[in-house]
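User: Fold this; tokens only.

Assistant: Input:
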Amino acid sequence: MSSAEDNRDTEDQAQSTVDASPTTLAQSPVPEPVNTPPPAVVDKPTPASPALEPQPYPQSHPTPPASTPALNTSPYFPRLTAPTMFLPIPNTDPLSPLLTKHVPPEQRPRRDVTENARDGREFHSQLMSNSWRALARMARDLIVASDPEDLSRILDLWSLRLSALARLRLTNQASAECTNLFAPQARSLATRLSALSAYPFELSVLRARVHYWAGDARGYVDALAGLLTGCKAKARAEKANLSMWLERSARVCLMIASQLVEMKDYHAAITLLTPLCTQQLSPSTDAPPVPSPAIHSAVARIYLLSGNIPKAAEHFKIVASCADVEPGTIAMNTALLCSASGDWQHAEAALREVLEQDPQNYTAINNLAVTLLAQGRVKDGIGLLEQAMQASPASVLSAEPFIFNLSTLYELRSSTAVDKKRELLTEVARWGGDGLRATCLKMPSS
């Protein structure tokens, strides 16, 4: 089902999935350590001995050791913790101009853009409240204070830092810091880093995403294709970790397909995902492959986007026949298929079935509001979204499609649009967290 806004984020979910649902949450180089050889001993030339038999080793030289001692090969990259690797985060907030223009000072919620997460114990609370600015600063402080030999912790914190910057939509800064991490002058260091067992897979994904942030969509697809090739090679080489690398390969395929959908190359996305429609129950057994409900649903939704409703219906039928399909998936697929066909009443019934099984499924709530709008029931749609906002403001007010749809419904009720959108702005400023695009509120900032 299409949302009132064609929106796509892609952080998240360094997890990328193909979903037609309208609720999708948008310089110093690093030198490699050099082992300096010991200074050479320079001797005066000695004339060759005329004797034919082997001569004894001169006593003035030490006898060569039988074997050279092994060098210390433990990873040690001190420049990864250097403060010069990072750029300062700007203290800007996209909601502040709107609050200044539309909300009186006494009614404005406090927006702290200088907040810092002081230690790891606050990580969960900051993550749940979408405090990406505080998390980015916390990651930087922890990296600088880390022991350079604790490489696993440092690389995980680098992943957190770059992910938080991306969620703040500071893509230029994220690209610059990622370039510092993998500087062209230190390509051998980057190769050594990626070969370590402590190297996080998410960091490889973020490195490929630099192309996307730069507007190079095809370069992004090429980088992901290279990452996919590496995952397949690891799967063949590391039999003990076969399941992990197969799962990562599937994740990368979904990322590529999501980007192809954004480029409107639906045929290529379907061709890429079709081999994944069957999954092996266990790599260590000879059990026959079974259909994957998630992949079949993704392929069906791409067919819906391309306008091929019969092919989408075929894949949705396969999903309905799966024994391990999640509750509500069949009803949600039915709602999407009915919406594409213009059967809004049956789509509404299917979505209400989803909500009976999971009342906190905010994707279904958002889709249901769209079906009510399609039937001309604007007041019912507003009431539904406002009820969800009151029940869980932290969840729904961080979703830009939800905010955009509610703003659109307010505009259709022109008599109360200004006051209602001002109230919505206040609630979004209180609960929305960082990284929210102010354009989803559809309010002028100047």
